[in-house]
Amino acid sequence: MTNPKLVSRFNEVGINDWLRVGGKGASLGELAGAGIRVPQGCVVTTAAFEQFLAAIDPRGSIRREIEKVAADDLVACTRVGAEVRARLEGLTLPEDLQKQIATHYDELHSRVGGAGNAEPVAIRSSATSEDSAYASFAGLQDTYLWVRGVDSVIEHVRKCWASLYAVESIMYRRRLNLPEQGLAMGVVIQRMIDSRCSGVMFSRSPNTGDCSVVVVEASWGLGSAIVSGEVTPDRYVVEKITREIVSRTVSTKMRMHRPNRVGVGVIDEEVPVDQQNTACLGDDELLELADIGKRVERHYGCPQDIEWAIARDLPAIENTFLLQSRPETVWAAKDATPVAAPKSKPFDHVFSLLSGGAGKK
Amino acid sequence: MGADGKTRCFTLPSQIADVPGTEGWESMYPYYTRFQPEDDQRFWFYNAMHFPEPMPAFDALTAEVPYEGLGAFTTRVFAFPTTMGIEHRIVNGRIYITANPVTDPAEIQRRLAIFQERAGYYYENWDRLFREWKVRLENLIHELEAIKVPKLPEFDEAEVVTQAKGLGQNHYVRESFHRVIELFSKMWHHHFEMLMLGYGAYMVFFDFCKKAFPETADQTVARMVAGIEVLMFRPDDELKRLARLAIDYGVDDLFASDCDLKKLLDDLRGRGEPGKRWLAELDKSREPWFNMSTGDGFYHHHLSWNDDLSVPFAALPRYVEQLRRGESLERPTERLKEERGRIIAEYRGLLRSEDERQAFDQMLGLSHLVFPFVENHKFYCEHWFTSLFFKKVREFGALLVAYGVLADAEDVFQLQYVEIESALADVSLAWAGGGKPLGAAHWRPIVQERKRILEKFREWNPPPALGPIPSQINDPALQMLWGITSETLESWSRTVEAGHEKEIVGFAASPGVVEGIARVLRNVNDIGQIREGEILVCPVTAPSWGPVFGKIRAAVSDIGGTMSHAAIVAREYGLPAVVGTGQATQRIKTGQRLRVDGNRGIVSILD
Hints:
By secondary structure, chain A is of the alpha+beta class. Chain A is 35% helix and 22% strand. Chain A contains eleven helices and 13 strands. The longest helix of chain A has 18 residues, at 95-112. In chain B, the strands form two sheets. An eight-stranded mixed β-sheet of chain B has the order 5-12-11-7-8-9-10-6. Chain B has a four-stranded antiparallel β-sheet with strand order 2-3-1-4.
């Protein structure tokens, strides 16, 4: 039996590898493979997680214990979660894994000619149950932004793993009665984009379910400001087929997140006054995003919810990155009643409409 | 009822005060156009789309006759199930209208039975009926052209005797004038003979698209239906042809951007054979294509290209210049056709079921069947016929001038058409009796007074609507012709409540948002004033405005919907446009800074 891979580059994984690298890692690998620009990165696999978990729980008793907890038993959830997290955090990562992480981390900046060993990265959890078409797990697993230095990267990988056992995560899984067995987490390590603006886009309108438009939301700085709901983003609607911009709603954007460029982590600050009411996206950027949205949708064959960022210091087009894409779930689950059915003669439709529905048959 | 339970209400008709200094204006218009006390109970809106200016007395006929035709075909001929016709009133020179909906379900059913049979006949035979319609309209136009306005010489023609006609020439004063008015009425009946059915078919497709693709822009739906080779583009195409010929014949050097028309024509005549050939080609283009109104055919002072050649000639230097630079002026019709095909196929591809795709095909097919009429009738009716109509009435004005009744032939348009008949009777009697008409003393002061009142009327800012706001409106005629829906009412009543003085709302006709300096042009004759990068603000655009679009940054008009000329051309040039604002030319001054939001249909005055 060969040893399972502990770390995989994006270009080594695709959407079908979600069990091996988690949903987010698989999706990013798939996007990269489809020629969509995503920040370079790799995924610490679920095998690495399993190995680590086995070291503290060789018989799988932790998982069985969690499955026994009642969904509404806050006390029990808190107790069991704290226990697991304490054990996970008390253990160093296996040396082999540490080495591999270091190698891949180095690769990230050597490839782009970054200086020194302090290339900022994002560490994002990539659970096997996350980002699926059925359960959103919105915001339950952790993401750490602007992490620098290999020791800190390794530390945050372990934090991601531990976040799987945060109280809210456990309770969420209990409520949906998801099995703990086989639940695992990959961790994405990815070059961090210092974004001038960022946001989400929907290749199907979240408001009306209209499949013919892409809806883009944007605000200044890092996407965490939108995701956390701290800011009302600008909103744009673009027709997929004609590339016409149907509407632009510029909001007053008070807060923005930006990386601490001299240190680590993210700074939450007020948007400079002269930018608060300025549109984040120019027409070219908006259309570029909408085109990418269309490509991703076509690639997957179904509407997508997408996170994106536009880098501060790169030339146009090259500066546009996707951070995540997952299938749209809300409208997909609704039964669509047909808008109309054919009639015996084309002009029978006129009779229906002009008789206020009285002629409908 | 508003959300607060109160009925929201615009100003009531009875609350409108006369503009100071216009007392007695009522005599300008027929008694049946006056607001009645009971009209306060009904909802009216200002028809700024067709009548953006105060109505001269004669021009009120361009509301009366169309509404006779429209109502005849919706109410009596086809029996549209849920709508009767339009009623109109005039106050302070402005035309307000209301629709008469049919709401009783039993009555709707009764009308539907008739409608299905009669409308079905037209839809089934549409192509043939449209072919015949064109012949009928052309005949009508030739009939109008053939009408002779008598000269009333000292002695009548010898043929009256030798051919034993037995009718003195003054009889034809009466008969010819009647004939002109009658033909105008016929034209408007034919106009509505097919138009409402055409719009109805389009509305079905539009309604479908708005349900299937709720966020898609109105313009995109229009693009799937719109024809590529539309008659309304033809006059402009003729200008491009003439520009090309000027170069081919080597007379293009005469077309300088600030050249005077009279001098240009003299120079062309002085150029020997090439100049003569070019002028001969010009004459070919003029009939019928220069019978193009500079407006929309509702005001006598919107002259046609033929009436005022300086209008089309203003565009020629630019076209010549573009051709010299090697630019193509051709509309890329093949590419436009392919593009339309692609858009249709891709929208169809987004539909989820075979049923929907079949319904889409049926509705789009029907729209494509009726649209050549919808797009092309305007050239025949509002432009070709109407330009000649006003010209003919002007000839009667000249007759009244010749007999001293009026000071200027244009003054004839200050009289109601029945008053013109009366003035003509005066002339006819004088000619026959050997005396002098008494009209000068009677009509000239009236003309002066009315001109003064019309100027005063311009000071009034007409409210977009009057009377109680209905909770919803669902009249197909209002929706088809004016784009008025419950949402329109909603936005109007918001305007009423918030009193947005710096915002003007219209139809979003071409997407994009830009800021720039306004240039208000009331007349196409002023297009020379516009500077590169300005925002054009005008009452209405027609193909004669085409050349301007290469210079401007955005377009705003008083009149027009998403299918209007301004909208179509702005989209071709990729400029933001807001049309059908009803009031842009009154509220915006040249030099003001504007933001034109072509996505939402809002024009903001920034200073």
